[in-house]
Amino acid sequence: MKVLELKNVNKIYNSSEIKVHAVNNVTLDFEEAEFAAIVGPSGSGKTTLLNLIGGLDMPSSGEIIVGGTILSELKPSQLIDFRLHNIGFVFQSFNLIPVLTARENVELIMVLQKWPENKRNLRTIELLNAVGLGDRLNSRPARLSGGEQQRVAVARALASKPKFVLADEPTANLDSKSAATLLEIMVNLNREENVTFIFSTHDPRVVKMARRIIILEDGKIVSDEKQCQ
User: Fold this and answer.
1) Beta strands in 174-211 (DSSP E)
2) Alpha-carbon dihedral angle through residues 189, 35, 206, 27, given to the nearest 10 degrees
């Protein structure tokens, strides 16, 4: 089942001096439970493409369709609500709320979605156990290592059972051991939760684990291949 479709998507930035075609006529679709990496040199359009997929930016032309909904047709308030219920995000810089505990950071998405308290509690504990932090429920981010913070971020991204998770350079700020642990956890969650993961990355470890590799150059797809694992 397709969870995401991109049809002839373009993103053009204009200034008084230059016109930049950051994403150039990209057509893609993603199936349920894919584990895909978007790779390419700096400036190739990876992060711009992820921002478009996540509804954080709008295309200059073309359509991005999530579960049958065309993102560009939503009003700003509708788009915020749609992202909340359908898309999970993992950022390079973790983006945890420092005054909240690990448990509260994960639970926040479900509070906004108005989940019943008992279901929120069960889902939060389930996810923090799955990322190996069942014993750090009440720790705030400052008391967690970078790798542990990113694991909380992954649990938070999955809390609402999104259609897919977008991970923008999730291992960039981690040491090799923490990165390896995080990737193993994400692979397991991809299978257990049956949720699609889409990475933007330079990290060869992520590329090695991916089951699909999409290569961008100058905003264009130059290769899109599936790998056997």
Assistant:
1) 196-200
2) -150
Strands 87-90, 19-31: pairing kind: unpaired
DSSP one-letter code for 159:
T
Q: Looking at this protein, which amino acid is placed at residue 152?
A: V
Q: Which two structure tokens, joined as six digits, stand for 114?
A: 């108005």
Q: pLDDT tens digits for 151-205?
A: 999 999 999 899 999 999 999 999 999 999 999 999 999 999 999 999 999 999 9
A 10 A CB-CB count for 43 gives 14
**What phi and psi, each to the nearest 5 degrees, are found at residue 2?**
-75, 130
Beta strands 2-14 and 61-66, pairing class: antiparallel
Query: Residues 45-92: pLDDT tens digits?
Result: 999 999 999 999 999 999 999 999 999 999 999 999 999 999 999 999
Where do we find the tokens 């330079």? 202
At 101, list the tokens.
């505990």
Alpha helices in 8-144 (DSSP H): 46-53, 76-86, 102-112, 117-130
Q: What is the model's pLDDT at position 227? A: 86
Nearest to 92 by CA among 216, 202, 209: 202
